[in-house]
């Protein structure tokens, strides 16, 4: 069983920065055995992949829309992941979700992720 809780969302002006965090509680398998991902869903749109990070944190992958602006990291000692978001744009406005999976490789497919947080709102004003 995995429980995920996001924090750090809010309202920011275009060009600004926000850092999202996700705290993970697991029973059984260690947090470090899960690949972690961030997804987002804007109003009226489907859920969209943002980024994913390997068990060790050494490998990451990003959606083209956020590459170069967002940085994902993890701290396996604290069972947390972060998403540093810089140069935010109005089109980044969405509910952001952290997710966990035990697939073998980094995945950008939401169907691969079996555990989800409740989501947190990020609003970027123009």
Structural description of this entry:
The structure is a single chain. This protein is an all-beta fold. The chain is built from no helices and eleven strands. It has strands at 2-7, 10-13, 18-26, 35-41, 47-53, 60-62, 70-75, 80-85, 94-101, 115-116, 120-125. The strands form two sheets. Strands 2, 4, 5, 6, 9, 10 and 11 form a seven-stranded mixed β-sheet that branches.
How many distinct helices? 0
Provide the succession of SSEs: EEEEEEEEEEE
Radius of gyration: 14 Å
* Total number of strands: 11
Determine the N-to-C terminus distance: 40 Å
Shape: globular
Please state roughly what percent of the residues sit in beta strands, choosing from under 5%, 5-15%, 15-25%, 25-35%, 35-45% or over 45%. over 45%
Helix content: under 10%
Tell me about the largest β-sheet.
7 strands, mixed
Tell me, rounded to a whole number, the average pLDDT: 96
Weakly predicted, low-confidence segments = none
Summing up helix and strand content along with how strands pair, one would put the structural category as mainly beta
């Amino acid at each position: 069983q995995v429980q995920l809780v996001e924090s750090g969302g809010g309202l920011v002006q275009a060009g600004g920065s926000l850092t999202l965090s996700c705290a993970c509680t697991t029973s059984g398998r260690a947090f470090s055995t899960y690949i972690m991902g961030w997804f987002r869903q804007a109003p009226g749109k489907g859920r969209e992949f943002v980024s994913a990070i390997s068990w060790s944190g050494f490998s990451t992958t990003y959606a083209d829309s956020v590459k170069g602006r967002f940085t994902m990291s993890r701290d396996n000692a604290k069972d947390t992941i972060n998403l540093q978001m810089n140069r935010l744009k109005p089109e980044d406005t969405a509910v952001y979700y952290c997710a966990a999976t035990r697939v073998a490789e980094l995945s950008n497919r939401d169907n691969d992720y079996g555990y989800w947080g409740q989501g947190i709102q990020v609003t970027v004003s123009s």
